[in-house]
Amino acid sequence: MVLMRLEHFTPTYMVERIYDLTVEDLKAHGIRAVLADLDNTLLAWNNPEGTPELQKWLSDLRNGNIEVIVVSNNTTKRVAKAVKPLGVEFVSWSLKPLPRGILHVLRTQHLKRSEVIMVGDQMLTDVWAAHGAGVRSVLVQRLIASDMWQTWLNRSIEKQIKKIVFKAHPQLKWEKSLRDN
Questions:
Q1: Does pLDDT of 148 surpass 60?
Q2: Whole-model pTM?
């Protein structure tokens, strides 16, 4: 019973940064859409303009016909402002770890679960929501060491959960691509 709950927090993949996900790798895994957390996954929470590396990654995915959709717990106003210069769709108020936002994307974009991955920097929200929605999860290292104040509690709880998950799954390692364990 404890292991079953533990699996809610266990990512399918662990990739150092979202930018390490290439078109070739995603297509090889049957991915048509990347659902991405916003803060500290796609953008550093304190750098709303993003980086040239982010713009290149988004361009590469667009050229490869892979859609990027932000799934965020933030307000509509906050997410809309952040993603406007990126030209990506979004779901705000997604209520992660509930699968609500991910299921909304699956339904409205007519995507199969097997065609989607959820990428985020937190086990307690992003990975758990992905498992709840029945899609593969990708845990990435956060872009910067600091977080918005609302995330501090999650990070302290997650620190303990990571120890347990990594002990139960020693094969989990930070990778540069989607490697099947």
A1: no
A2: 0.87
